[in-house]
Fold these 2 entries.
Entry 1:
Amino acid sequence: MNAPTPAPVAAEVIPAPVGLLAELTHRCPLRCPYCSNPMELDRRSAELDTATWLRVLTEASKLGVLHVHLSGGEPTARNDIVEITAKCAELGLYSNLITSGVGGALQKLDALYDAGLDHVQLSVQGVDAANAEKIGGLKNAQPQKMTFAARVTELGLPLTLNSVIHRGNIHEVPGFIDLAVKLGAKRLEVAHTQYYGWAYVNRASLMPNKAQVDESIRIVEAARERLKGELVIDLVVPDYYAKYPKACAGGWGRKLMNVTPQGKVLPCHAAETIPGLEFWYVNDHSLSEIWTQSPAFNAYRGTSWMKEPCRSCDRREKDWGGCRCQALALAGDAAATDPACSLSPLHGKMRELATEEAADNPPDYIYRTIGSNVQSPLKEKAPL
Amino acid sequence: MTAPFPTPVADEEQRLLSPDELEAALRDIGARRYHNLHPFHRLLHDGKLDKDQVRAWALNRYYYQAMIPVKDAAVLARMQDAQLRRIWRQRIVDHDGDAPGDGGIERWLKLAEGVGFSRDYVLSTKGILSATKFSVDAYVHFVSEKPLLEAIASSLTEMFSPTIISERVAGMLKNYDFITKDTLAYFEKRLTQAPRDADFALDYVKQHATTPELQRKAMAALTFKCNVLWTQLDALYFAYVAPGMMPPDAWQPGEGLVAEKAAAAGGKNGPFEPADVPRLPRGVRLRFDEVRSNHVLLAPERTFDLDDNAVAVLKLVDGKRSVGDIAGELAAIYAADRSLIEADIGVMLAELAQKRVLER
């Protein structure tokens, strides 16, 4: 009678999300060429108002969210950041400020502390100031970041440094580790660039070679041993040289919700690159409805959407098929196996591409800007 | 009385046992011959060995661990039935893991490293007693040559291992300050893996040992395996306890170790002492999660699910009570031995401290 439609996912079997990524604004003083925000950035006039954010947080808490990541853009660019943080504390939500530490961040820090902020994650683009400021595209950013970090630890707030690694700073991995210790950070994220969004456009400028990647991993492993009990180092390895993909956001619609500045709710921050997905807005639906019923969250939830080789793979509930956005970008099909997986027929090509790009001279960065009309210099415009 | 002829074999010994009787007979073999009864194990678990003697044990036992998947592959190679192989191959996965850094052999290497060995030295198998190698190799040969029923029956020592593991973990944690819970991670996994494996093998033997002769062979196979384990401890005892006759090529204390920096770091990373006062730093919160009805520890970028014991301890962590105070309160509530609780929570708190979610 009817064409077969995917079985509806029953609300009671969907486990509650644990994390909410609140992208409060896309405004940011930095212009990092690997920014995870979408190419089309929301303008200030489109941003949700304070009351709506407070309602979203209340709904998130009821739904089962434990961690709220206050992010952006630069979240302290919002005038109501203190109010939003205080609401998290009131609700028992764990608040994590993901900040560049520049602009108005330092000025608001003490008030955020008083409001009950739990944790600060500070981005550092490089160790050498000139290099860091070239990558971030903002002069005089580095001293601001150092002052900010010092105040975080002075207040007794736990500090995580986040360093996104690429060919322009991979030689600084030992430096990042030393810097984290010097600043009194408890955690360091050595996160190799994930090539979505702006990083995808800039991939040829960012891609390190395999030997550099291996060396960076070795350095991190040695430092972990040496700094046991002093510094926790989280390592995110680059997909292009990996054997198996990462579970994107812990699996589509399994752990995380991402609310954009204008209130669109995404399963991951790059999900909008997949055409045809219907996203719901916090102004039209409750978070609970969106989590359990919105078409975008159900599109790739679980395993029933999978094709081979994922469908019969015994890792299918470990990595959930990897990243849907990367599958779309590189395989031309969001339901394909992430080419980062060695079981994907495209994996060899993906690695070749990375190897070639890493061997060429890097093109100039295309910096992140609001309202730009970007042309990627990548050779392949179509999927592999 | 003098009998001119050998005692006639009683009918009882040739009778076909019911499956339950067979199981009882197999268990009886373990009760009398399993290596938890060996004097070396008694010394090990009671804290009577010195560090070098524990090292000798860890090193030699590595050879046994490393050969287990070889043994299981030999068993597997003889199975004609895909369903059987699917079950048996899990043993190989358990030991080898799915990737480098994973699996039982790796966890044993961690144990050997935990007591001070360099990984490469252990991997080289230099220094392992010849007697260890002979007895382990005999086991591999046994399963390759004997009928499948006997090969499977020889694995049944797993029925007895959960007891020895619990004894060992508790005893070693309590008695050796150089042993941590991390070091003993191997045994934690085996506590669940061994019973699963043993249940399957026991059912198989009960089902397939259908004649008195086959039942006697299954029992003999298990006896053989008990002896494989026992002999290894005989050799260790002889070389490292009394009379201390170390063969010329065997490991000598001091060899194959990494510089003892771990000991120096002990103050920072070692177990919490009774006088230490633990506290949760800012940014780490214990919270009841109403949606999931459990307690969680919220920390930067991570959430720790807690078992009931951890919750009971962390509820008392307030930056004022010492480990001793906390153990005292828990000992009163649970009517348990305070010093055991102290040792236990000292280790648990140190693990959280290493993850930087607890301070002292």
Entry 2:
Amino acid sequence: MAGMTGILQTKRNQMIALAVLGVLLFILPFAAGALGQAWVRILNITLLYVMLALGLNVVVGVAGLLDLGYVAFYAVGAYTWSLLASAHFDLHYPFWILLPLGAFLAALAGLLLGTPVLKLRGDYLAIVTLGFGEIVRILMNNFDKVGLPWSDETYNITNGPRGITGIDGLNFFGFKISKGLELFGLQITPLQLYYFVFLAFTILSIIGVSRLQHSRIGRAWQALREDEIAAKAMGINTRNVKLAAFAFGALTGGLAGGLFASMQGFVSPESFGLLESVMILAMVVLGGMGHIPGVILGAVLLSAMPEVIRYAADENMQQKIFGIVLIAPEVLRNLIFSLAMILIMLFKPAGLWPSPEKK
Amino acid sequence: MDVLLQQIVNGLVVGSVYALVALGYTMVYGILQLINFAHGEIVMIGGLTSLFAAKGLLAMGAPPLLALLVAILAAMIACAIVGVLIERIAYRPLRNAPRLAPLITAIGVSILLQQLAILVFGRNYFSFPELISKAPIVFGPITVTLNEIVILLTSFGLMAALLWLVHNTKVGTAMRATAENQKVAGLMGIDINKIIAITFAIGSGLGAIAGVMVASNYGQAHYYMGFMLGLKAFTAAVMGGIGNLWGAMVGGLILGLVENVGLIFVRGDYKDIFAFVVLVLVLIFRPQGLVGERVAERA
């Protein structure tokens, strides 16, 4: 990595690297599309994970608040979109209302979570956020029959474990993304269009997060992470700064949630379990906490790795090598995945690409 | 009223199992300040190992009581070995690493153990043989089974034994010293690595027994059984004040009681929410947990 950073010292080389990256990112969905649309979907999900990991990184990596229930904000965004743009209530609001609304509600949930836990530190905070995530998931599971104590009538709000189907896709002022697009004879599938939308939002988040990290509040977050008491002594209002970290992380998660619902067309509580929160946390820590390129690397690695292993370790491959199917592919995939997690941490405790200044 | 009494009894039984598992979390936390995410899987391994050992022994014609005792022993040995191995391989190299690194390996180990359990035992729900009678015994308004009574008594016995061990033996003193200050304990001639390994072995052994209890009480074991149980037990440990043995016991019992008594007022679907809401409330008013002492903030 040292050699690479060396090359990237000059402005000119940086511009060239950026241009190459841009071209690669542009070609990627078409290359993946040649392999099959399923691969484009994997790309899109990876982009969502990058956004999620960036959001969680603000809370965990920059501000040092361990959050094990981050997926709850993703869920708030996804359900906001699903309830207000689907056949479930027969509401069909446009994206420019729903995406900000989902992000806003998620941020509100972040404040709601943040306020009572301000006094808690370290691992106490972790378990409360974990509990919060579980509460949100259980509520989604059970809000298909919400009743009032004084009447027997129940209302179906979230459709429970069956989830919500028939969710509207993205519509840009009359242009339906689900129809695909033909541009200069080039056929662009809906999933590829989603890719570009997600990419735009991801780049936006990267710029937003990195600007924020180097701003006044970003420095306050880092001070909070390094030493809360000293930060307080320096005149930082730790309460507001903590709440801001929660709210901003939640906002990013809510945005990603809305995008997820629009592409998937279906959401259910199953997608928002504890394991999902843990996965996003693992992306942040494995990549390199507090360091944006590291976090992106972690997110790409952890979300793409299972899919690649799934492809590489399928039954045919085992059949060819060993003559029989030794291990169910699903089990093998999780085995390799968990082993990789352990090994990376053992050999790179600070993450694969930690921030240089921490040395 | 009768319902309340019955739910209190049920709550005590479940709570005593939570307490045993919570002790495993809190002992490790007390010494390493590490959330041992894989502890729930230790409980699962205990449940599955004892199940297959008991079935094998019964098939060979052993009497149920002997089968049970040998099965418990097998589970304890298996879990102690796994626990010590996990510490040696996944946690010890990271003792001076950034704090979240061992947490991630713990999560990795947790997933790994689940997958290994699928490989070794399979994905099915296995039924646990009825080694202690589960015929209902009626005491006035309360109905219990012999199995439940044994669980309750065993848990309390084990908790008392652990407290005795920690407070009245040389090993226990060394454990407390290590928890207080590893460096100084090392200077006093305590073999830190050995003490930490012993802590893991004891915690895992208790987890193994809890696994046997859960498997026998619900009559089944499954590779995923440790997950929710571990989560609840960890919640209990935090509620009581993590790192504190009394806290884990009190927290476990209270969580079991709250969950089961709460069932009278709240629909069963919301049972898990209830536990977490109580946790949040407790921590708002007592951020250090029910029994935990307020630790001075270090600059």
